[in-house]
Design brief:
InterPro entries: GH, Glyco_hydro_17, Glyco_hydro_17_plant, X8
Order of helices and strands: EHEHEHHEHHEEEEHEHHEEHEHEEHHEH
Radius of gyration: 24 Å
CATH class of the largest domain: Alpha Beta
Protein name: glucan endo-1,3-beta-D-glucosidase
Enzyme class: hydrolase
Number of helices: 14
Number of domains: 2
Helix content: 25-40%
Distance between the termini: 38 Å
Strand content: 5-15%
Organism: Trema orientale (Charcoal tree)
CATH superfamily of the largest domain: Glycosidases
Bound molecules: 2-acetamido-2-deoxy-beta-D-glucopyranose
Strand order of the largest sheet: 5-4-3-2-1-13-12-9-6
Oligomer: single chain
Pfam families: Glyco_hydro_17, X8
Length: about 500
């Protein structure tokens, strides 16, 4: 029977992996443009339940970094574009940023990389002139703190700066950016970092006006005669993603950089769109992300570098309902704000990929109107002989409020019920308890089994997300929306030839 959902994470065993010291992994991006953004503790609960071991934040939100501490989750943080000019112009501003946002959290929070800005060349070209300095200043500050080996510094690029991306062997970076790219690549090489690239086959497909077959964008199997052939290398390409990664390797090679690995910082597919976006569907999003995860974890590599892992962060964890732009912009997420999956991925037979049922969560609560004395007796039993950890109910702890026997009993009952593997008879307590599907979590009081946000986020005890430092690309369409039509002409031409 189908196992429900999902996902992600580390593959085991080692081989020739390109991603510095580590095997291929699939992580997720955590955008925060939600009208009811879950509390950091709830975000982390969802990550844990889904075995997501790698995340990228669009800022260095203190609440998230605190919640991610001691979880084993590896975290990529970002300098938001708004802070780039300041950091790129001042060594000491960069040093302060590192001390407040990195040094203060490491090693409890396993920060592994810093994204300096996001698609700066295409979204904020005015800051391009300080980008390399910003990378260097952040790196110097890490060196000063002796963290430069553990934490890599790079900057995610839009794949739209790679021109003539098909055939991949002829791809090159838009020459007008060479004055920035050459010192940047030199920096990445000398610091052992990687090229961060955002790849959106969805936009490539949309803008190709039917010339790119949908299956080629979605990693679906193609008959050999439909594969795209690179006329120089005779390598066969069966998906846009690989072609784009190889295009990046070629573009770097044209500038004489041949040993910088690629990490894909964003890729995904929207599950919903407006009338002009007919391929933003649940089925396509599911197909793309499921195939992407399998592809990355299988360490197939690319035709140019078979077996060389291309670790990838899926865009993105949550649907972001307050994003501007077309309907699709709000629908790239794997989950809604309650932690309920948008779709159930086709990952059932992926050996290394852990799955978890997050669809029908159940909880054990005190029955409404139950006798208070009986509730108190059951509560005492649960926290005593029942061996439930009731420390969260103590004064000053997250589940102390509301301070009444029904609320406290509900917490104890639910904890016991989950401890007992949700066996139906573990939610009885002499008839004063009942199973429910409503998550009783509130504020920062997170109940066992709770995966997402519910209830009010006001009056929380942990630091909350700083809304002003949220997702730096908030007001921009990300990635491929900027892909120029010029890039696609190469693709169109070659498809015309090879398909
Ligand atoms: C971070 O994670 C990596 C990979 O698992 C591990 O090697 C490293 O020791 C971790 N660092 C800290 C500070 O936990
Ligand atoms: C920036 O600061 C680092 C130490 O944090 C220092 O090594 C470096 O020389 C400084 N660079 C400039 C341009 O001041
Ligand atoms: C290359 O980049 C420059 C500077 O951003 C831009 O004006 C130009 O249109 C780009 N060229 C192509 C072919 O995209
Ligand atoms: C790359 O190296 C070759 C051979 O050393 C040289 O001719 C060429 O100018 C270099 N290209 C760049 C962009 O540095
Ligand atoms: C995984 O990789 C192997 C060879 O490395 C290949 O034969 C197989 O088709 C791949 N599976 C998927 C799902 O890509
Ligand atoms: C979840 O509940 C729905 C409606 O009750 C049911 O159709 C579905 O099969 C359940 N899923 C699982 C995995 O139990
Ligand atoms: C599934 O999620 C629950 C939390 O709801 C967690 O207790 C459980 O360990 C998870 N199972 C797996 C296999 O990750
Ligand atoms: C919750 O916070 C608001 C303002 O942030 C405050 O006015 C209110 O008294 C708080 N409520 C409780 C129960 O602490
Ligand atoms: C939160 O936002 C405020 C207002 O912009 C800012 O002053 C503060 O430094 C931010 N705090 C953090 C932890 O980012
Ligand atoms: C999934 C879940 O538990 N949703 C609940 C969130 O809280 C509101 C009331 O605050 C309930 O109506 C929902 O059922």
């Amino acid at each position: 029977m189908a196992v429900w959902l999902l996902l992600l994470l580390l593959a085991a065993s080692s081989s020739s992996s390109a991603t510095a010291d580590e095997d291929a992994f699939v992580g997720v991006n955590i955008g925060t443009d939600l009208s009811d953004m879950p509390h950091p503790t709830q975000v982390v609960a969802l990550l844990k339940a889904q075995q997501i071991r790698h995340v990228r934040l669009y800022d260095a939100d203190r609440g998230m970094l605190v919640a991610l501490a001691n979880t084993g989750i590896q975290v990529v943080v970002s300098v938001p574009n708004e802070q780039l000019l300041g950091i790129g112009q001042s060594n000491s501003t960069a040093a302060n940023w590192v001390s407040q946002n990195i040094v203060a959290h490491y090693p409890a929070t396993n920060i592994t990389a810093i994204c300096v800005g996001s698609e700066v060349l295409t979204i904020l070209p005015n800051a391009a002139k300080v980008l390399v300095n910003a990378l260097k200043y952040i790196h110097s500050a890490l060196v000063a703190s002796n963290l430069d080996r553990q934490i890599k510094v790079s900057t995610p690029l839009s794949s739209s700066i790679i021109l003539d991306s098909f055939p991949p062997s002829q791809a090159f970076f838009n020459h007008s950016w060479n004055p920035v790219l050459v010192p940047m690549l030199s920096f990445l090489q000398s610091t052992g970092s990687y090229l961060m690239l955002n790849i959106y086959p969805y936009y490539d497909y949309m803008q190709a006006n039917g010339v790119i077959p949908l299956d080629y964008a979605l990693f679906e199997p193609l008959p050999p005669n439909k594969e795209a052939v690179d006329s120089n290398t005779l390598l066969h390409y069966s998906n846009v993603f690989d072609a784009m990664v190889d295009a990046a390797y070629s573009a770097m090679a044209f500038l004489n950089f041949t040993n910088i690995p690629v990490v894909v910082t964003e890729s995904g597919w929207p599950s919903k769109g407006d009338a002009s976006e007919p391929d933003a569907t649940l089925e396509n999003a599911n197909t793309y992300n499921s195939n992407l995860i399998r592809h990355v974890l299988n360490k197939t590599g690319t035709p140019k570098h078979p077996g060389m892992a291309v670790s990838t962060f899926i865009y993105e964890l949550y649907n972001e309902d307050t994003k501007a732009g077309p309907v699709s912009e709000k629908n790239w997420g794997l989950f809604d704000a309650n932690g309920v999956p948008i779709y159930i991925m086709h990952l059932t037979s992926s050996g290394n990929v852990l799955s978890n049922d997050t669809t029908n969560q159940t909880y054990c609560t005190a029955k409404e109107g139950a006798d208070k004395k009986m509730l108190q007796a059951a509560l005492d039993w649960a926290c005593g002989p029942g061996k439930v950890d009731c420390s969260a109910l103590l004064q000053g702890q997250p589940c102390y409020e509301p301070d009444n026997v029904a609320a406290h009993a509900t917490y104890a009952f639910d904890t016991y019920y989950h401890k007992m593997g949700k066996a139906a008879d573990s939610c009885d307590f002499n008839g004063v308890a009942a199973i429910t599907t409503t998550d009783p979590s509130h504020g920062s009081c997170l109940f066992p089994g709770s995966l997402g946000k519910n209830g009010t986020l006001a009056n929380v005890t942990a630091p909350s997300l700083n809304s002003t430092s949220a997702d730096s690309s908030a007001d921009d369409f990300h990635g491929g929306a900027f892909t120029s039509i010029a890039i696609m002409i190469g693709v169109i031409f070659h498809f015309a030839v090879y398909l």
